[in-house]
Every structure is written in structure tokens, then in C-alpha cells.
Amino acid sequence: MSSTDTIPMLPHTSHWGAFSAGWKDGRLQVRPHPNDPDPNPLIENFPEAIHHRARVTTPMLRRGWLENGPGPDLRRGVDEFVAVGWDEVLDLLAKELERVRDAHGPGSIFGGSYGWSSAGRFHHAQSQVHRFLNTTVGGYVRSVNSYSAGASGPLMPHILGALDDVSRRNVTWEQIVEHTDVVLAFGGMALKNSRVASGGVSRHVERESMQAAARRGCRFISISPLKSDMPSEAAFEWLAPTPGTDTALMLGLVHRLVSEGLHDRSFIDTCCDGWEIFENYLMGRSDGVPKSCAWAASICGIAETALIELARSLAGKRTLVVIAHSLQRSEHGEQPVWMGAVLAAVLGQLGLPGGGYNYALGTLAHYGKRNNAVSVAALPQGTNGVEDFIPVARISDMLLNPGQPYDYNGQRRIYPHIRLAYWAGGNPFHHHQDLKQLAAAFRTLDTFVVHEIAWTATARHADIVLPCTMTLEREDIGATPTDPLFVAMHRIAEPHGLARDDYDIFCDLARRIGTWDAFSEGRDTRQWLAHLYERTRKGLLDLGLEAPDFETFWKREEMRVPQKDDDGGMLRAFRVNPTRSPLPTPSGKVQISSAVIAGFGYADCPGHPAWLPPTFKPDAQHPLWLIANQPHSKLHSQLDFGGHSRSTKRQDREVCTMHPAAARARGIREGDIVRIFNEVGACLASATLSQDMLESVVQLPTGAWYDPAYDALGRPMCAHGNPNVLTRDIGTSSLAQGCAGQLSTVQVERYNGALPAIRAFEPPPAR
To answer: Molybdopterin oxidoreductase domain location, by residue (predicted)?
Structure first.
């Protein structure tokens, strides 16, 4: 019997899964949902995190802002803070919001808040802050797309349809277990990624599904520089291309298929548009360079014979092409996403059960699942009176270049002049690239407001820091469209220090500005939960099913809802009848080439998928590829101070992985502290050695909290191991302007200096 069996446990959920929690001898105990076949260990970050010294305990004002008033300030990030009461801080903030609104208009306010703050449907920080800005100041400049899918999001509607239709309503794990012959996974299908989903899931089925499919005879092929990007249960074959060359590899495969007449010409003729233009490029008729397997081998570093054998083995098989988010988080990231769809079309597999193209399957726990037959309501955000927006990864460019033009998806847009940024539920010092530049960008603001549970680097760069509750300290409804379990998220702990719910903070601000009625609609938190739940109850009633009222649901603690049939979604319907169910593209078909994109005239994103060499590649100064991928010990940077996350660090620093040959050439041994650097910045990490990667690669996961320090020579670096001090802040292309932070180029050396103390989890100076 476990220690948690004898104590009261209350239900809750998180982005990494449903669980229950309770207290024993003053310590939080957590237990995964009993029906979860592969629970995510990230829930073990909660016990030490909930009352950690890194938590923000009281409202804080940056001294420079308090004494000198709003305005750009070089002291952001290094200044001390002054503790104040809630009434004082909210009075000052309300006046500042009114000042900026009246003097510069709501178009001078940026509603940041990109992030995974809460699995609950009501206490979703992004919705809360956007609703507040819409109802209180008339709107805000918003961001579009995501750091995870910044290139694929804008591209996908041009070639197939909406991103969610290709990723969430398409091929399921059930289909793969029953039908798929080959899973061709570019970027792999790492379980650390597929165990996570916004809103949470109750069953993590990816591991058991891969194992069941493999036992039936399904062939999994992981195409990644890292062998760890596929679990052993898949019994997979591993191909390790040079990072960023997947488009060239796919072109080589398609060239071989076409050259030997192994492509599905009937499917191309019936269901695709723009083949002739692409074929001219593929066969070298338009540029004199046939994209053969020999050509591809010289770029991607995989033998020509291996590529030819792979291409031939795919023909006539129920093949599923998967492109991981990681491929498009780099320069020209649109190209592998597009080329993957073309490869699936050339094989004639789109729309078949277990076949075709399922973008990012294995990247999130949402993907590969059935969709619920009833919906869960989200907090309505009101109407935004500001039309300006930016691609989410262009935040530094916007703040540093107001009034300057930029390209995006066929438009020529202008960066607005932002005076105030309001952030809640996100940490841009995790997501963003070139952190030195990001810090400089935030110093241009008049005022930077942050709601935070802990002293992240974002909070340290703010002027006004408002302590908010973490998920365990509030009630909510946990639900997601791809999991049938709805969870009554009970409060597990009282708020830490003077922390308050985001909603209550916004209500008090709205009262001061005179917009409380519009923001709150007269409801407290429990009334909002009942109001949002009503949409689900009505959906159940419409299906003639039991529909308990809110109080009954709350007492039951969870509820299962029906799911839709596994019908293959948009792509299946299109395949069955292309005329009756056309795709939402200009031609109604798969756009092998796109006249629309070609018309934009972008040299970095032409009208068909193409191999575009990277601007930055290894050289004598920076000879190694850096892969800055997602961590396995936390979600992004969340709860990096939690016990599970900290247990994976060494000498309190993040761990980077190197090939033994690359380490040996640099005099680096297992466990050594290394300095990783390039022209952008530098950081320290603890080295571990593995042969399961390319020799030219060093891998350092994101998520370590930014901890700036200086070495003995006075050179700046992150002492903790945040790779975004090394990543370049460039867009994927003029089409999408997505995040290109997955890949960089670096040098690594053994670090022999005195190790700086880790200060990331210590509160900043205050009085």
C-alpha cells in the first residue's frame, strides 16, 4: 500500500495528465489517475514547488519605476524591488493603464501571455488577460501562431487546410495499431513530447500504441540526429541526417519514386494541383539540378543506397508520414512541412486509415486521439478593438523597431509602438531566442506588468509583479477536446503568501477603472465555472445522454463524455469524394505547388517545397550543431525548481549531451562542466556522453531558468544552461516569421573556472 492510500486525495489535472493530490505530514502527495497506462512523472514537480522560496509572495514594484515613473529603463532585470500592498499596487496600475490608453490608445498595449499556464478552462491566463484588456481598455496588440508551430500554422491552410484538421482530426493511434505498415517519422516521436497536452489527458497511450503496432509488424523509422527521439517499444530503425536537411532527404525519396514510376499518378492527377511545376524542379528541368538520392545524400549525410532502398520500400505500403514540430522550428521551417505532405501525396496515401500525412503526431498528447462529441466552453474574451498583431516570435523585433515594416503571409505590415506590455501565464525568457536582445527589448517599454507564481526572468524584468495562484490553489474545470474525462479541479492548497487568482486581480483593477460589470458579468469564480459547464451539459442533453447539473458534477469529481467516430476527418472525406468534400485550398486539392505563395515573391519561401541551404551552418569557429529541444523533466520551463526537474540537473546545471568523439577532441569527460558559445552568447552546462547521436551535434534542452553571470574573463553567460542565449532571433521565412530556435551553431570547451552560484531560484533584492 502506498503512502497516499491512507490520506484524502482530491482530483486535479495538469498539462501532463490527470492526477489527485493530498497532504500528509505537511508534505504534498500526488498520485496519477488510476486509468493512465503511462503516467507522466512531471507531476512529481508539484510537492517541492508549491511552497518553494522561488514563489512570489507579495506584490512588488521595481524601485526605478516606483521612484522615477514610467519610461524606458536600462535597470530592468537588475534593479531591486519594493514590497507594497495590494491596494497601493492596484491603484498605481489602474492609473497607468488609463494613462497609456488615453495618451497613446489601446494599440500601444501588448497583451502577451503566451504560455501553458493552466489546464483549467476558466483560469486560463491568456484568456483572462485578453478579456480584461478588451473589456477595460478597448483592446490590445495581439500575437498570432505559436512558438511550437510558427511556420506550419500559416503554411498549412495554403496547402491542405487548417492546422488542427491535419494534426488533431486525422490519423489516430487506433488506426496505426490496426492498419499502418510504415511510420516514417521525421524528427521522431519522443514520448517526452507526446505525454503533454494543453488541458491535460487522462490516458497516455502513445507508448503502448507504438508497441502494439510494432508487434503486428508496423515498421517505425525515426529520422532524427538523436536516437532518443523514438522509444524502444517501437522497435524502430534509426536514420540520422545532418540537422535541418530533411527537405533534401524527402526530395531524394520522391525523385526515386518518380524515376522508377512508383508514384501514384492517379492520386496526383485527381487530388493534387501544381504537380507539373514541382516535377520540373524535382527532376532538374527548371534549375538543372535533379534532386536525386545521390544529390540528397551529399546534403543529408545518409548513403545514397540507403535512400534508394528506403524509397522503394515505401511504395505500395500503408505509409504514414509524420513531421515533428522540431523540423519547422528552424530557418526555412516551412519547407519540410510542405515536403512531407508532398511525399504522402506522391505515395497516394492521404486520407487512408493509418496512412498519409498527420502533421506533428507524437508531438502532443492531443494528436492521434478521437475528438469529443460535446464541447467545453472557454472563457469568452470579448471584442478586440485593435487590428494590429505580430507573429508571436517577433516580440523583440516589435519592441526594438516601432514603425518599421516587416513581411508576413503576403502582407507588408508595420510594427506598432508598444508602451505597456501586460503578461500573465507565460515566460518569454523560455520561449524566445537571443535572450540578451530580448532583455534589451523589454527595457524600451514605459511599463511592464507581470502576473507570476515565481521569480522567473520575466518577472525580474518587470516593473509591476503581481503574485498569482498556481493551479493547485484554485478551483477549475479540466477538460480538453480530445480526452473524454472532464475533471472537477478541486483546490488542493491555500494561496501561497498573498497570491491571488488572476480573475480576482482583474476584477479589482476593473473596479478601479469602472469596467467591473463588463469584465465580470457579475459572476464570481464558482458562478463562472457553472456557467461554462452549462455548454457541456447542453451538449449531453442534445445527445439524449445523462447531463448532471454542475453541483452534481462537482461532487462526482469527474465525468466521462462520448467521443466522435474515428472517421479520418477532412482528409478522409476528401479522398472518398474530392468533388463533394474539397479541401479548403484555392484549388480544393492538395497544393503541390501554390500560385498564391509564389505570388508573394519570397526568396526564402518559393511557390513549391524546395531545398534552401541554411544561412548559418557549422564553420571553423562554431563547428557543432546545437539542438535546443524540449526537456524531459518539465513542460517548457514550468516548475524548473520542482523536485523532479532539479533531480535531473548536475552541479545544479542543465545537462548537455555530446558524442564521445566530439568530447574527446575537446578534452571533455563525463560530468565535466562545459562552456557552450557562439557569437550570440554563452552558457554553462554539465556534459554527458552518448553515441546515440551524430558526432556533429550537441544537445541542450530548453527550460533552465535564465541566470546571467560573468566568467573570470568578464564574458557574459547563463550559469544555469539556458540554450536560448545561443539561438538566433530570426524568422523561419517571410511567409510565417516563425521561431527558428531549434537549431544553432556553437563551439564547446571544458570550463575550468570557478563555478558561479545558481541564483535563478532566489528572489531578487527587495526591501
So the answer is: 55-511
